[in-house]
Design goal:
Elements lengths: L1 E4 L2 H13 L6 E4 L15 H15 L7 H4 L2 H14 L5 E5 L3 H11 L9 E5 L5 E2 L5 E2 L12 H4 L4 E2 L2 H17 L3 E4 L5 E4 L5 H7 L5 E2 H10 L7 H13 L3 E4 L10 E4 L2 H8 L4
Parallel strand pairs: 1-2, 1-3, 3-4
Antiparallel strand pairs: 4-7, 5-6, 8-9, 10-12, 11-12
Helix pairs in contact: 5-7
Length: 280
């Protein structure tokens, strides 16, 4: 079988699970783009794909992940997957999804490409399901990497073939998201993805930043731990740059030396009120 995941940390967790259970043995493929953010307009066309690459290139500049754009080629991953399925008609692909917009949006993108393999594509969706954590308590994971490898042995029982009906309906959901072409997409339960403006996280950023300069990395850490923001750090830093552009934040430091040199603080109160109030 082939396993498909949408987050790098998931690949390591799943590999450990495979080491515990030979029946899970198979290649792991990683869909790397985060389709929960960024432009989707005409993504099936070369110009749409290039627009998305250009957008990511802008965001990745001066980040710790400058090499990542060249590594992300989901079209090549998809092509390789289809080649393998064509070469062996007994081969199955398992799509593993956590309950988060990153995984679900990646799943929707895949669903537009794999209808010809209906009956051989399975899904395992950890939707509102309880698992045991390292301390023995029950919790509801939103990402696969939060699940202990031994718990995957239980999760494998969830595998089911994607139905013909889903292959009809889910690509329509993806087409709707592409038409809306928002900058942020959020999961509202089940597989319901809702489009939001690029400013969706701005209020949380404002509430996390103080009037005193803080290191950018500390602000990001607080956004993930205290505000529990569910998007990537690259997107959040881009939003901070945009907010500095309209005068809500002040960013100081040499970007050429990387994020570790950057500090963030609140700026004009009026600018904050005018721009953040629109998101309430």
């Amino acid at each position: 079988m082939i396993h498909i995941v949408f987050q790098e940390a998931d690949t390591y967790t799943l590999q450990k699970a495979i080491e515990l259970d030979n029946t899970l043995q198979g290649e792991i493929m990683h869909i790397k783009d985060d389709y929960a953010v960024g432009p989707l307009h005409l993504l099936d066309e070369p110009e749409g794909w290039q627009q998305r690459r250009d957008w990511w290139k802008m965001l990745l500049t001066h980040s710790p992940y400058t090499e990542q754009l060249d590594m992300v080629d989901d079209k090549l991953t998809l092509h390789t997957l289809m080649e393998k399925l064509d070469a062996d008609n007994t081969l199955h692909a398992w799509i593993w999804m956590g309950q988060n917009q990153h995984d679900v949006c990646g799943y929707f993108w895949l669903m537009t490409k794999l209808k010809a393999y209906q009956g051989r594509i399975f899904v395992l969706y950890m939707n509102n399901l309880p698992f045991i954590n390292e301390k023995g308590g029950i919790f509801y994971p939103t990402a696969l990497y939060e699940i202990q490898p031994k718990e995957f042995l239980k999760a494998k029982k969830l595998a089911r073939p994607i139905t013909l009906s889903e292959f009809e309906v889910d690509p329509d959901e993806w087409k709707k998201l592409c038409t809306e072409n928002s900058m942020v997409r959020m999961l509202e339960g089940g597989k319901k993805i809702v489009s939001n403006e690029a400013t969706y996280y701005d209020k949380e950023i404002i509430n996390t930043v103080s009037a005193e300069p803080q290191k950018l990395q500390k602000v990001l850490g607080n956004l993930f731990s205290k505000a529990k923001v569910k998007t990537g750090d690259v997107f959040l830093v881009w939003r901070m740059k945009e907010m500095a552009g309209y005068g809500a934040l002040e960013l100081q430091g040499d970007w050429e030396k990387g994020w570790k040199e950057i500090t963030v603080k609140l700026a004009g109160v009026k600018a904050i009120e005018e721009n953040v109030s629109t998101n309430e």
